[in-house]
Amino acid sequence: MRLLAVVLALWSLGAAAYPLCDSLEKYQAFNRSMDPWWKVLEEKRYADADKQFNALIKDAADGKMTDQELSRWFEIFRKWNPAREPLHEDWIRQFPNSAAAYLAAAKYYEARGWNMRGSEYAAKTSSSQFQAMGLEFRKAYEYLGRAENLMARPTLAVSMRMWMQAANGDAHNRIEDLYRSALKTFPETLQVRLTWIRLSHPKWSGNPEKLKAAMADAKGLSKDDARYIAYAIDGELGSAYWYLERFDAAAEWYGKAIPLCPGFDGALVDALKMHQERKNYEAIIPLATLYIERYPRNNWGWSMRGWAHIERKEYDAAASDYKMGAQYNSSYAQEGLAWLTEWGYGGMKQDYRKAIELYEIAAANGSTTAGAKAERVRQGIGLKAPAASVK
Question: What is the arithmetic mean of pLDDT over 342-368?
Fold first, then answer.
């Protein structure tokens, strides 16, 4: 609680600006401030939940925090487990005039609706799935209506309505009506803008031109908030062009997004995954290097860069990266070290027994291919596998 108070105090000087994309430290501090609250309902701490989350709603209404931060807080309740339903009912029963209780319940039923629908495109979703989704969304809409009546700035509710409308299809352009109305009434909203940006992706029947046009709607925002919206738009354009298989354009827009918000890694990770899919090793190395600079203890960056070096036959550099990845428990890096040891590349002394050992460590750590490689080496040098222990 002391950490949360400090974080909010630092971010509440004057009108709120979106702080989370400034630095990884701010983003991590924000996430740590939420840690004590993830199980607040399971622990039946209804009074604590009511006080905390209504205070957050008020802070957003008073301009002390953005509605995008508020949305991140309410993701705590976006769980579809049926066992949570009576917990939400108990909270509402104890606090029948609580905006937070109704909004949390709406989040819960929205999550249940999406779970009923599934993640496939509409063409691959059955009518029974849509019907089940609709029943859950009906409950979400009911609780949203109650929450909105108790909120001075119900932009989070508007954002949720936009998403649920998208799940049902938007034959009457209701989403844009919600978006334009919210911008007119609450021009400082970030969450509604972010939802519009995400729903402008081609997979939601949007297009790159629609995404680019969204930037004009951010002209009245503060410099920091406009920077965050630019990050969201540029990253979504990268995703859109990747979806459309226009890979050069995707790389260009990801490249524009990445430096805008050092606190976030979404555009960076997506760019790396796109280049990994296309085996563009030259592009992977500088991006993986940036990822390592941001997350030096995360094994994924080391493993990704090591793989790119292997494919470029830069074995010394690959060995160095794989050693770091293995240090942080990456089975991929352990398997890569085993391969280098098997063949004596990258300054590694060729040692079949050591290679087998490393392959087996990688297999024990989750690799689905390292076990077969260990057996291949074992057979090649005439070794037998250790006898199974007798219990």
Answer: 96
